[in-house]
Amino acid sequence: MVHKVTEYTPGVYFLDDGSQRLLATRNLAPGRKVYGEELVNIGGVEYRLWNPSRSKLGAAIMKEIRHNPITPGSKVLYLGVASGTTCSHVSDIIGDAGHVWGVDFAPRPIRDLIDHVARYRMNITPILGDARQPQSYSFQVPKVEVIFADVAQPDQAEIVVENAKLFLRRGGYAMLSIKSRSIDVGRAPEEVYREQVEVLKAGGFNVEELVELDPFEVDHALALASLV
After folding, report:
1. What pLDDT, on the 0 to 100 scale, is given for residue 88?
2. Domain range spanning residue 148?
């Protein structure tokens, strides 16, 4: 039984059951699950538990990232959205006043995102597209406050930089999930993280935080950077 609800950052909550802290968001589509997560009703409010082992953003929050720029009302471009596990929690956070444009190049995950998530959440626009070619979906995406990138490509940081040129407002934020093994399996993850951070800096970003995501995601880190 949950004894206490604490808002960690706007729209993100910790539920305390007396033995552990459980990460959660308020369910924007009450009664509906996305990936088998538990629904918890507290005081007439339905929360969705957020599994940090299945979400890079969730893992970063559990590792106490100091700043989460995704807040109620945010406009977010999500690169590598897949079937929508993390995107659904982003949808909860931003609420009806915000919007998330989710890009993925694989038809099956986009179909799952449409059928199981976006159909019940009016603040998600699925886009079948290649994040390496942002101009191909530029007519669908306006300027945003946040780019969240979870793309398993060797040029992860370059992809963020190119999308930022078209879509990110000055002063906006990029959140890059760095998958070191997708870049170079033969190098130490810390070396790969530093290299990707330098690419972001060269692209006009100020990198404010770099959070390693172990034990939730091994050999992963999340970089938070603002566009200066």
Report:
1. 98
2. 57-227
